[in-house]
Amino acid sequence: MIKGLKICGVSDPKTLNFILNHRHPPKFIGFITNYEKSRRFVNYEKLRQLINVDKKKINFTSVLVNPTDEILEKIKPLNFDYYQLYDVDPKRTKEIKLKYKIKIITAITVSNKNDVIKYKDYSDISDIILFDSKGYHMSESFDHNLLNGVSKELNKMIAGNIQIDDIPNFEDKDFIIDLSGALENEKGEKDINRINKLLNLFSKI
Question: By C-alpha distance, which of 6, 25, 14, 193 is closest to 82?
Fold first, then answer.
């Protein structure tokens, strides 16, 4: 059974308010905090204002690619529940978790079976392991069958160009499902209608 939904790459108040006030809200909302190559990137001042809201039990997640001490210190006071870390080794991950007393989602980017097993280096450190594509902000896919051997005990999340209509295919999987690009229009902006469709669909599964 799917464990929940994460909507990633939210960058404007209208979209955020819609999600927060939906009858069937997701478990997580992700904000691109330091990866400026992404069109979903939110600069610090805008981010600070954007997430200064009542989260209504939704977990706000800061998406960070190999974050520096400077950015971590800067975002420390912000309204985040999780840091989602890309390109951070296990030792550094543990340091961040302990220093900032924050829950950690470790992102493992996957193209083959050898990539998948890297999760074992983080399983005792991270609260959730996210299996994503190598595309980062490009919403690329990877073969989700590569995850068939992953421990059922692992608290895991899956991304990688998942479409709204793919959700029923994960009905018997114990993943949190992470969507971003599938919820955007041709201009790359989050589409309220698509988000509404996703949340209503998931509520019936």
Answer: 6
pTM of the predicted structure, to 2 decimals: 0.94
How does DSSP classify residue 113? H
Burial 47-56 (b: 16+ CB within 10 A, else e): beebbeeeee
Once rounded to an integer, what is the mean pLDDT over residues 6-20? 98
Say what the alpha-carbon torsion angle 106, 111, 112, 114 is, to the nearest 10 degrees: -40
Closest to 122 measured CA to CA, from 159, 76, 84: 84
Spatial separation of the C-alpha atoms in residues 141 and 135, rounded to whole Å: 8
Tell me the pLDDT tens digit for each residue of 19-38: 999 999 999 999 999 999 99
Domain 4-203, CATH homologous superfamily name and number: Aldolase class I (3.20.20.70)
